[in-house]
Amino acid sequence: MQLQAIICDWAGTTVDFGCFAPVAVFVEVFRRQGVSITTAEARTPMGLQKRDHIRTLAHMPDVHARWQTVHHRPPAEADIDAMYADSVVVQTQSISAHADVIPGCTEAIAACRARGLKIGSTTGYSRAVMDILHPLAAAAGYAPDTLVVPDDVPKGRPAPWMMYMNAMRLNIYPMATVVKVGDTVPDIEEGRNAGAWTVGISMTGNELGLSAAEVAALAPAELTARLDAITARLYEASAHYVVRSIADLPLLLDTIDARLAAGERP
Predict the structure, then answer these.
(1) Which of 7, 18, 190, 216 qualifies as a FRET site for 150, CA 20 to 30 Å off?
(2) What b/e readout covers 140-151, taking b as 16+ CB neighbours within 10 angstroms?
(3) Among 120, 123, 185, residue whose Cα is nearest residue 156
(4) What's the rounded Cα separation, in Å, for the pair 148 and 266?
(5) How confident is the model over 107-129, as a mean pLDDT?
(6) Which helix (H) or strand (E) holds 161?
(7) pLDDT range class, residue 29, cuts 50, 70, 90
(8) In what order do the strands lie in the sheet with 241-243?
(9) In angstroms, rounded to a whole number, what is the distance separating the alpha carbons of residues 76 and 80?
(10) What pLDDT, on the 0 to 100 scale, is given for residue 169?
(11) Catalytic residue ranges
């Protein structure tokens, strides 16, 4: 048994170093409701389908209290629906500014393809957003074989359905021959729930939440300390491996193949 496919997240994993595109959108849609949220709060549920992300944000204790102060009632599903509709509009207007492919991604994907691996992808973005982002990434050199969005399945992350849909479209099984790569805890949970190997990303994604320039400006000791804490969180979420960037992914593939050949499973 050998690896057959890699299934990658998008923002923070293959594009949008620092995962900035969704953050400003969540801050904006809550602002339109008269409720202020911080960027740290906006990042907390990252990786979920965007409607679930907004719902989770609205029910975080501090945000819920601010909402109650402004509206004199708790947030209702109609409010979640309205903010989600707003988020799709705002995101489609802004996503092109965050479509840069993360350094080393195209080379890592090429190395995976050279091993005969297929490339799938999952995301928390809607189809409307990905209809803009996908061709921009392809023009920059990153074009996975499949793209599955939450619209395609009964439930987004951490449910495994997007992983299974990728496997069906790629015509591969068992899931033990698949590696899921992502920068958030829901990414790891999605991969584990599907029975795949999971690789967390510590430096280029939402957990660190810094641009490439901001990362370069950090003192090495501070960067290491922050990444160590992120690595610990991703391992706590049951990641099999954690690397700084997708550029480091090819270094793991021989190790995973060896574990498969030895009879190990995720």
Answers:
(1) 18
(2) eebebbbbbbbe
(3) 123
(4) 22
(5) 97
(6) helix 161-170
(7) very high
(8) 118-121, 5-8, 178-182, 197-201, 241-243
(9) 7
(10) 98
(11) 9, 50
